[in-house]
Every structure is written in structure tokens, then in C-alpha cells.
Amino acid sequence: MSIALGVDPFDFVVFGGTGDLAIRKLMPAMLFSECDERLPQESGIIALGRKEQSLKDYSAAVKEGCQLHMADDPFDEKHWQAFENRLEYLQLDIEKEVDFNRLKERLEQYPERIRVFYLATHSSLFGKICEQLDKAGLIVDQARVVLEKPLGMDLKTASETDAAVSRHFDESQIFRIDHYLGKETVQNLMVLRFGNSLFEPVWHHGMIDHVQITVAETIGVKGRGGYYDNSGALRDMVQNHLLQLLCLVAMEPPAQFDQDAVRDEKLKILKSLKPLSGENVREHTVRGQYEAGAIEGQATGSYLEDCKLQNSMTETFVAIKAEIENWRWTGVPFYLRTGKRMGRKFSEIVIQFKPVPHQIFPNVGQPLQANRLVIRLQPDEGIKLMMTSKVPGPGGLRLQQTPLNLSYSDVFRNRAPEAYERLILDSVRGNSTLFMRGDELQAAWKWIDPILTGWQSRDDKPAAYPAGTMGPSSSTAMIARDNRSWFDEEED
Ligand code: BG6
Q1: Which residue's alpha carbon is at the smallest distance from atom 15 of ligand 1?
Q2: Does 489 have pLDDT greater than 70?
Q3: Over the stretch 419-457, which tens digit does the pLDDT of each residue have?
Q4: Same domain, yes or no: 104 and 194
Q5: Are residues 297 and 404 in the same domain?
Q6: Would you say residue 155 lies in a domain?
Q7: What is the pLDDT of residues 150-165, one digit of tens each?
């Protein structure tokens, strides 16, 4: 099989190599790249962890993880062998210089290789790790550092962490990951907007009534409670994934598809978000927490049960009415919504157009429904344009909304790569177009911070919603105040 877009030989060094992310996402992504023969033969994967264990045991854990998380694909033993041969495990305590010196000995066996340091640990450790890498002389020109989200807990801690990393790495070497940007359908959002002449002329407040962005999950937080209860949905999903989606929908066309042009445009959107504070937080945001319920007939426990807590104010659901204060988007609300343990798993962007300015068809019974463009990010990736059509037959004019449907799986039969596959190899290439720049990160936190403060200053608890529903009733009420509704509540 030919190599699609090659990468130079590299060593991929994972801090947090035994953690959930490494086993569930990073290693399977690397194995997929192995199967597609995208990894140069002279490349290594070095997992670092505090635990003492043999490579054999570590490999067995990685294999089990890959088999579990690549479940839809038949497991490929031949490529697994090649992958296993690259795998190394080093015990490392980030406090110990001697451990970094052992890492150095290993990396200096191949000084010409690109070095990617992937920090899949809590962000409070990033500064220390970078300092130790620097002390050990490991930050050479061809080194990069990949920072896993969430980067910080608020603007202050994010800025401190970012500054601590920037003391050791140049901005061109820093890759702040948001895996949503690596999803095929998210990249396609830019292609849809800027690779077709059809949409741009109607992409503004004159034609668009509002936008909805939903990332609904059915999973809960069992097993991640320690992390999640300190984070919550706003930090875990909105500050990064949902705001990045909003930027891609709302940004101006960049002059080129390159790292600075794209990120400059996204930054402008983040800076144009209308600040939410004080009373606005109450009116324009909803936070919820799931209670026991049932999903697809299966009984599920509450958030508190999942996290083994008596009490918690942490939100597992957020809905926000966001507004962008610029010429293109004035008066167009962007409704954002995400939650755990919701009724269905789907991520979708809905562009609701305005109705026709004048209705010419008599006696059709009801007002014409306006066009709607639905961009389905997952699952069943595709694009659907809802249009008004005539129902065939005599006896009067009857109109109905009908979908014009593009399903990616019908058109593109190849396997859609996992987000991490693309992003890891982009970091090796040194291409940061699909990563967040430091100023973007700060701008996102700047908008999120007052929402957190607004919530903290009020004593009210997150609104309860039963698992298996689409969130608390206050979310429905928030959008209903604008005489609109979430689309899953409507009959299509
Ligand atoms: C992660 C969040 O960034 O994204 C998780 O930390 C969430 O809480 C996940 O479940 C969702 O990603 P995906 O790719 O499954 O939509």
C-alpha cells in the first residue's frame, strides 16, 4: 500500500503511557496508522509511566486496549507484530532527573529522528515535565510537545500552564490538541463552506435565523469521576470542542488553508463572542446533572452514584445561548448544548435559514417551513438539506419538508480515520493548522471564565435530568423563550 502523505522517522514519547487516553485512543490510533503503512520503519513508540512493569505486560495491556477500541475492524495480527516491535516502556517519575537521563540515552541513539513528546497527563504537570525535558537537554530543534486538553481550569491556570510550557518550547513546537479538529467531518466543515460557492453567499444574518450545535453523549462518567468532578461539561466540552465548532461555522474565509490564516480567523470569532456575565449567565446558560434513568432500555445510575459522591454541583449538561458581535452574525443566536447520559449519541450542527419573505402558495394549511442544513458529525456522518417540496398527486397543492441527503458512508467507502491518527502525524510533520494556538486558548477561557464565576456566585444546584433524556426542562425553556426549539424535539 502506498504512503499517502509521508512523515519523517520519529520517536513518539507518551507521558501518561499507561493512562486511559493512551490505551483507549493514542495506541489504537498509532496501530491504525501502522495498518495503513503510514509509519516509517525507523520510528519508535516509547510509553512512560510511573508503574514498574515489563514491556511484555505493557504490550499485553496495549493489545487488549486496541482489540477493544478498534472493535469494528478485524484485528490485524501481522501489523500488530510490526507495531509491537516499535513499542517500548520506560518507568519514569517526573520528579527524578535520573529518569529523564535514561530517556535521553534512548532518544540519543537516533539523534536525527523527530521527537514528539505527548503529554497525556493532568495539565498541572506540564510545566514540570517541560522543565525536566529541558534540563536533560531533550528539547532539540526537531522536538515538539503535544498538550492534551483540558489545558488549565480557568484563564489564570491555563495562562500559567501555557507560560510554563512556552519557557521551554517555541510556539512553533507546541501542539495544543483538540481532537474534534481531527475528525474528518469537522475538517469537512471548512471544505463545505470554502470549497463550494453555494453556501458563502447565504452564510450570514440576512439569511440565517439561528445555529444549533449539539454534542450529545449516552456515556456517563463512571471511572472518570476523579477528573470529571473537578471539570464538568463546560470545561470538558464547551471551552474546547464546542467553541472550536462554533468558530469553524462562523469564521470568515481565511486567505489560505494554513496554520496562521485559519487560526487568525478563529481567534477573531472568539474575541467577538458577546461576554456573558451576571444576569446574562442566568438567562443564557443552563447547567444540569443526570439522575438515574434508562438508556435504550438499560437502567443507569445517577451522576452521584457513578462518582460515588454524596453531593456535587458539577454539571454534566450545559446549554448556552451565545452571540457573536460582528457584522456577519449580528442577531443570530448560536445555541450550544452538550451532555452526558442523554437519550441518543449524536453530534450535529444545524443551520436554520430564515423563511421565504413572501408566501405565494394559497391554502397550504400551515406556514412554509424554512430551509435547514443539518451537518451530522457523528454517527452516520453526512449532510442533509431540508427543502420544501410538492407532495405528488392531484387535488390541491400539498407541501412537505423533504431531505436532500448526502451520507458519507454511501459515497466514501474507505474507513474514516480516527481524529488522533491525523493529529499525531500532523504533529510529526510540524503542521499545526488543526491545533489551537496560545491566543485562541486564552480567548476561549476569557469567555468561559465569567460563566464559571456566574455559576459559582449563585447557590442554585444544577438542574436534574433523568438519564436517557435530552437534558433538563430549563434547556427547552431557554430556547423556547426565543420561540424556537431544539431540533430533536421536533418531528422531522
Ligand atoms: C473528550 C471529553 O475530550 O471528548 C470526554 O473529555 C468526551 O468527556 C469526549 O466523552 C467525546 O469525544 P468523541 O470523539 O467521543 O465525541
Answers
A1: 217
A2: no
A3: 999 999 999 999 999 999 999 999 999 999 999 999 998
A4: no
A5: yes
A6: no
A7: 899 999 999 999 999 9
Closest CA to 251 of 179, 170, 193, 181: 193
The answer, yes or no, to whether residue 383 has pLDDT greater than 60, is: yes
Same structural domain for residues 103 and 247?
A: no
> What is the whole-number distance in angstroms between the Cα of residue 180 and the centre of ligand 1?
9
**Residue 191, domain extent:** 181-414+438-489
The CATH number linked to 135 is: 3.40.50.720
CB of 178 within 6 A of ligand 1: the answer is no
pLDDT in tens, 206-254: 999 999 999 999 999 877 778 899 999 999 999 999 999 999 999 999 9
Any atom of ligand 1 within 6 Å of the Cβ of 99? no
Q: Given the residues 168, 210, 241, 284, select the one marked as catalytic.
A: 241
The verdict on 211 and 335 lying in the same domain is yes
Same domain, 379 and 475: yes
Does ligand 1 come within 6 angstroms of the Cβ of 217? yes
Residues 367, 232 share a domain = yes
- Same domain (yes/no): 126, 249: no
Range in 9-18, 68-77, 161-170 with the lowest mean pLDDT: 68-77
CA of 345 to the centre of ligand 1 (A): 11
pLDDT at 4 over 80: no
Q: What is the pLDDT, as a whole number, of residue 58?
A: 97
* pLDDT average, residue stretch 7-22: 96
Residue 174 lies inside a defined structural domain of this protein: no
The domain tally of the chain equals 2
Q: Which of 148, 167, 194 corresponds to the end of one domain?
A: 148
Which DSSP string do the residues of 208-275 spell out, in sequence order?
Answer: EEEEEEEEE-----TT-HHHHTTTHHIIIIIIIIIHHHHHHHHPPPPSSSSHHHHHHHHHHHHHHBPP
**Residue 345 and residue 232: Cα distance in Å, rounded?**
18
What spacing in Å lies between the alpha carbon of 183 and ligand 1's midpoint? 12
State the average pLDDT for the chain. Answer: 93
pTM for the full model? 0.94
Q: Please report which confidence band the pLDDT of residue 460 belongs to, taking 50, 70 and 90 as the band edges.
A: confident
Residue 19 domain-assigned? yes
60 belongs to a structural domain: yes
Examine residue 40 and say whether the peptide bond preceding it is cis (omega within 30 degrees of 0).
no
Is residue 148 in contact with ligand 1, taking CB distance under 6 Å?
A: no
CA gap 267, 250 in Å, rounded:
11
Q: Which of 186, 236, 420 to mutate to test the pocket of ligand 1 (most atoms within 8 A of CB)?
A: 236
Q: 241 an active-site residue?
A: yes
Q: Which atom of ligand 1 is nearest to the CA of 180?
A: 14
b/e sequence 290-322, b meaning 16+ C-beta within 10 Å: bbbbebeeeebbbbbebbeeeebebbbbbbbbb
C-alpha cell at 285: 446558560
